[in-house]
Amino acid sequence: MHLVAEFRPRHLLLLAMAGLVVSASAVSGLRGTFWFTPALAIGASLGIAAILLWASGGLSKLLQAHERKAIRALLDNSETSCFLVSGGDQTTTWQNRAATRNFGSLPDLGALLGNYCAAPANVMTQLHDQASARGHATKYLSIGAQPSRVEVILTDGGNYLWRIPPDAVSQGQSDLPVEWARCDLSGRILYLSPLLAAHFDTAPTHVGDLVKPPLPDGNHASQVQLANTSIDRLACRVPYGPGQQAVIFLPAPPAPATPADADTAMNQLPVAIAHIAPDGHIAYANREARRLLHLNPQQEILFSDRLEGLGRPICEWMEDVRSGRLKRSTEVMRLVRHGEETYIQVSLRALPSGPAGYTLAVMNDATELKSLEAKFTQSQKMQAIGQLAGGVAHDFNNLLTAISGHCELILMRHDSSDVDYPDLMQIQQNSNRAAALVRQLLAFSRKQTLQFETVDLQVALAELVHLLNRLVGAKITLSLRFAEQTINIRSDRRQFEQILVNLVVNARDAMPLGGEVVIETAIQKLPKGLCRDQATLPPGDYAVIEVRDKGQGIPKANLSKLFEPFFTTKRQGEGTGLGLSTVYGLVKQMGGFIFIDSEEGTGTTVSLYFKPQPAAALPQKARPSKTAVAAQPLRPRSLVLLVEDEAPVRSFAARALQLQGHRVLEAESGEAALKILADDEICPDLFVTDVIMPGIDGPGWVSKIRSRYPRTPVVFMSGYAEDSRSAAQARIENSVFLAKPFSLSDFTSTVNAQLLQHASSET
């Protein structure tokens, strides 16, 4: 860029040469030489050339001056900050309007660079040297929020043009998250932040146009109002570089709150707050407290009249807080309101500021928390009952086995004409009732031993309809509605029948005047699954069995208690309260889900959900019938090793085996059985052993001698053992499981079947 023209004196040399030629021509002309005329022409030509060159040089200067003026005007209108710095003392000789607006009038560019680098003189010297060598130089300086590119250009006059882009200034200013302005000492605005400019329709040019009243001098903050607005601000002046200052506007402090403002703020809180007077009245309640306590705006009521369930008078509790005996106390109480159960957690403390004797109550709705607590307590109660059932089942079933077994042995010696026969039958019947009760407890606790198989719903219900018709009686009509397709589920057939019997009996009892019970099967598709009653069904197809009645329905308050053991609405002696809890346990043990929909006066629908099974998923296992077993010849005088820790059960089992003609070796433990088998001459034909015994258990001692007796059949017995059947049979081949309590016929038929199977395998 040529701002100063280079001086060229060629036209003076030509003018001197022309003068010499003309002088020589004049002398020669005086002497009459012949070359006078040509020489005079040459001199005149040189002179004219010199004059022309001189004129062209002046014209070049005029053109360069005009060019410099145009370039300065162009730079002056640029948004880029431009400085012209002399190459000698590095002083600023000129700057455009953008530079003055952004940085003020600078006598020295080093004063500006000193704000952004540690050694401004060294930076200027380095850039000038680079520009002298290459004509231009660049450097990145952290003038704004990001490094900005500063450019230095060498001019023809040996000066340097500095160019600072506008983004450097905007980065350093507009990124500030405050309302502020930059001005010179006269108050002329050089920069206005976007946040401050948003308050004005037209851009102000002077500080006095920003606020009313005028800003005070000095660095003291004062409260002002933005011009043409009602916005209050706290403004102050601070120095901003050479010859400039910044005016910063901050939010004005809030006005002192009035009682009305305080009440409005309290009403906006999502927390229930109340002030309790010394006499127990609710002196003040915010909006949330009035909603929670169901208070009218002007209603005056005692705090103790709205809540109950503390266990002692609420006024005594509040007096303990007011007197300081309790610094802070929190209780959960029930809201006194008919038709709904609402629990409120109340925290009391003395009112920090206000009239003496007042109490501050902070409340929140604890109904959901109380509900979760009740569900957790219910879960613990059900788990405890299940543990109780499982714990006593083994010993209880041993007692029942001994009672019913010896009763059957006595009945074998008495006929119906005997005077003791009715008493013996009562003993046997009540033993069976007790055994059924234990089975219900085990089913409820999901620890009942199930024998799974594929059950065709249509076939199972058709076989059960005769029994169900006898149960419902003449006043009730039983209707079966089957799905069009065949539906199979994985279930224990006997326990599945028990589920339907319990549900149909409940439906019958709900319609004392008669009605219709409908059992319907269907396939229901749940592509998104189902979430209901704290149960989650995964997506898929489900076999649904519904048992519907048009009876009295179930009160809403009792719906959550239906599956609790021993809960019943029937009179004393009409039911044990284990029907639905048994159904619930069996359905869960079969991997299904159960839901109940009911409305008082309308009826009840019980829905069972099971995973449908292919027809050949679980082939049914053929079992030899008792008749078939009895018809086959028994192996004569088989040797049976009987291992049972309960002496009455062992005595009954030994008597039963001896009546069948077998020889019996008795052992009271697994260790005793191993001692008997230590004799190599003893070779039992059958092992009959309890599963759970002190010391080594049944599968344990059988495993120790299995290598010596690999084909000897085993009959495992147990009153209760979690997964005992599967555990025993998985470890021991050629074994069966017999659940206690068992009858004499069940025991002898199982033993004979194992002996016959062993005999046939040997032959």
What does this 3D model show about the protein?
This protein is α+β, with helices and mostly antiparallel strands and 763 residues long. The protein folds into 6 domains: 10-74; 80-171, PAS domain (Beta-Lactamase), CATH 3.30.450; 176-251, Beta-Lactamase, CATH 3.30.450.20; 269-365, 2-Layer Sandwich (Beta-Lactamase), CATH 3.30.450.20; 369-427 and 624-763, Response regulator (Rossmann fold); 453-610, Heat Shock Protein 90, CATH 3.30.565. The strands form 7 sheets. It has a 6-stranded antiparallel sheet. Strands 13-12-17-16-15-14 form a 6-stranded antiparallel sheet. A 5-stranded antiparallel sheet has the order 2-1-5-4-3. Helix 13 (421-444) packs across helix 16 (579-589). The longest helix is centred in the middle third of the chain and has 45 residues, at 367-411.
